[in-house]
Amino acid sequence: MDRITFYNRYSQQLETEKIYGERSLRWAHETSLGRFVLKICLTKPWFSALHGMMMNRRRSRRLIAPLIEEYDLDVEEFCENPSDYAHFNAFFYRKLKPEARPINNTSDSIVFPADGRHFLIANLNEEVNFFLKGKVFDVASLLGDSKLAQQFDGGSLVISRLCPIDYHRFHFPASGKFKLLKQLPGPLHSVNPIGLFLMPHALWTNRRNVSIIQSQTLTIGIVEVGATLVGAIHQTASEGYVAKGEEKGYFSFGGSCLVTLLPKNQVHFSEDLIAQSAQGVELYARMGDCMGRMIEAQPANKR
User: Fold this and answer.
1) With left for phi above 0 and alpha for psi between -120 and 50, is residue 254 left, alpha or beta?
2) Element (H, E) at 158
3) Does the pLDDT of residue 46 top 80, yes or no?
4) Residues facing 157 on adjacent strands
5) Were 120 and a residue from 133, 256, 263, 277 both cysteine, which residue would form a disulfide, CB within 3.0 to 4.6 Å?
6) How confident is residue 191, by pLDDT bands cut at 50, 70 and 90?
7) In a 3-state reduction of DSSP, which class is residue 14?
8) H/E element holding 13?
9) Which of 248, 96, 65 has the alpha carbon at shortest distance from 167?
10) What is the mean pLDDT of residues 58-83?
């Protein structure tokens, strides 16, 4: 893969992703030695935990200013001044001012749960011609529960891929009753397209958390997927009723992603998400923006 492109909802044009740590990422996935080191070391939870400890040290603060400058991050969105972060990890999972990520307040909307590059699999029973190369997404393995997977048979799935430079707190896509079902162990493969094209199964074998939200009209599945250098997925929300856009948790340092599952014929997705995904292109959009709208349930025919 020579370069990664995505469609930016705000500029309304294709853009090339500026990959954080690209040289190391390509070495690990595109060379024989790199793939060997990846297998025996880089995907192991202890490696990510060790790196996370380094990012929790005060000396890691020196990495913050260069990253902000290189990737032109908007410090006006931050709740704190960049110089006030105790270490790099604190900056990585920084909070933003509420006005920086307004939540779409239309009553029937479902919003993106995180900043990132989003890809829609419109029908989970059909083959995917993006990173899966003609295979069907393994929902049962993703959820670790074949019975729960049946609720999404023929439904849809949205992968929200976060880059290391993104806002790394994730939020609820809709209001409803939240329940954390399970925490599944696993390795920590990269979820960057460079890695996914070689190991697409990472999405359903990596360390992950599985939750559901039960709204008045539908059940929504939410899976947070860990990745290389993401040693922990932190849940900050309590089980019970949650509001759309409310914080659910955050990732520690590294690339990561979320998967949102929707039942069959219950959501109209945004046109740009449909159009770009159909072409095998991710859509960049921010947390709180509209991902789709719930389809109003039709009353049963009376005899």
Assistant:
1) left
2) strand 156-162
3) no
4) 121, 261
5) 277
6) confident
7) strand
8) strand 13-16
9) 96
10) 92
Q: Could you say which DSSP state residue 40 is in?
A: I
Chain-centroid distance of CA 4 in Å reads: 17
In the sheet that holds 267-269, the strands lie side by side as 109-111, 290-294, 267-269
DSSP letter at 195 equals: H
Q: How far is CA 199 from CA 46, 54, 187, 190, in A?
A: 20, 27, 12, 9
- Tell me the range of 192-196, 198-202, 276-280, 295-299 where mean pLDDT is highest: 276-280
CB 276 within 8 A of CB 242: no
Q: Give me the phi and psi of 272, to 5 degrees please.
A: -70, -35
Alpha-helix runs per DSSP H in 93-249: 139-143, 146-150, 193-196, 202-205
Question: Which of these ranges, 21-35, 74-88, 169-183, has the smallest mean pLDDT?
Answer: 21-35
- Each residue's pLDDT tens digit, 120-136: 999 999 887 776 666 78
Type of residue at 160: S
Buried b (16+ CB within 10 A) or exposed e, 43-52: bebebbeebb
The SS3 assignment for 107 reads coil
* CB environment 6-24: b (16+ within 10 A), e (fewer): bbebeeeeeeebebbbeee
Which residue from 243, 158, 258, 279 is spatially nearest to 210, judged by alpha carbons? 258
**CA-based torsion, 297, 108, 280, 167: positive or negative:** negative
Q: Tell me how far apart the alpha carbons of residues 104 and 127 are, in angstroms, rounded to a whole number.
A: 32
Average pLDDT, the chain: 85
Phi and psi torsions of 196, nearest 5°: -65, -35
Q: What is the spatial distance between Cα 213 and Cα 177, in angstroms, rounded to a whole number?
A: 5
Q: Which two tokens stand for residue 111?
A: 């919003």
Q: Nearest Cα to 207, choosing from 218, 223, 196?
A: 223
Torsions phi, psi for 36 (to 5 deg): -65, -45
Burial string for 206-222 (b: 16+ CB within 10 Å, else e) reads: bbbbbbbbebeebbbbb
